[in-house]
Amino acid sequence: MSAEQLRPGAKIAAVHEAGHATVAEYLNVRVERIRLSDYWLPPSTILQRPELLDSERDGGETSYASAATLDDQAVVTAAGQVAMNELAAPDELARFRCEDSCKKDEDDLRGIASECGITDSDFPQWRLHKIERVREIVSMTHVREAIQRVAADLLTAPLEDGLNGEHVREVLRACETQLETS
User: Fold this and answer.
1) DSSP characters over 142-172
2) Is the sign of the CA dihedral 148, 154, 155, 156 positive or negative?
């Protein structure tokens, strides 16, 4: 399926999921799989498969093959929203319903904060610290380029399969090598 056939907003959802996966790999948290949710299928496909009407409006999912520290979990969780805000086209982002895609991440971030013993009153500052860490990572040229490449690849990958973690690692390595040789 081509990116043009997907519902509007799929490009931003791909950047969001690629942000999670690429930042995870940068932090050596191994990614198992990254995929877009069925929500992004074109309306014609959804009409042919009515069971997909109940698909959640999330961006997709990123599953991990290795455990991460709570700090790394928080950074990876925040990475989707930061990638979207910094790398998605402003005109597309303006039409995108971020609250649908980012709500689960925000809930997960609150859960991680709770596990870390962060109080509700300290949460905003703690969250800001994690977002600043993600911005540092995403501002690196090779990470930024890898997120964009992984997002583009995700848009053309079969929705059922998505991309495997090895693909994300290879893209990140290739972008790093390209930067080193230029």
Assistant:
1) HHHHHHHHHHHHHHHS-TTT-EEHHHHHHHH
2) positive
CB 80 within 8 A of CB 22: no
Single out the residue of 82, 70, 134, 56 nearest to residue 108, CA to CA: 70
Torsion of CA 71, 76, 78, 80, to 10 degrees: 180
**Comparing C-alpha atoms, which of 29, 129, 145 is closest to residue 87?**
145
Sign of CA pseudo-dihedral 111, 132, 124, 100: negative
More confident residue, 46 or 86: 86
167 Cβ contact partners less than 8 Å away, ≥ 6 residues apart: 150, 153
Residue 20 has pLDDT above 80, yes or no: yes
DSSP element (H, E) containing 106? helix 98-115
Reported as a pLDDT band with limits 50, 70 and 90, residue 34 is very high
**pTM for this predicted structure:** 0.86
Mean pLDDT (the chain) is: 84
Distance CA 117, CA 98 (A): 27
In this predicted structure, the answer to whether residue 137 has a pLDDT above a threshold of 60 is yes
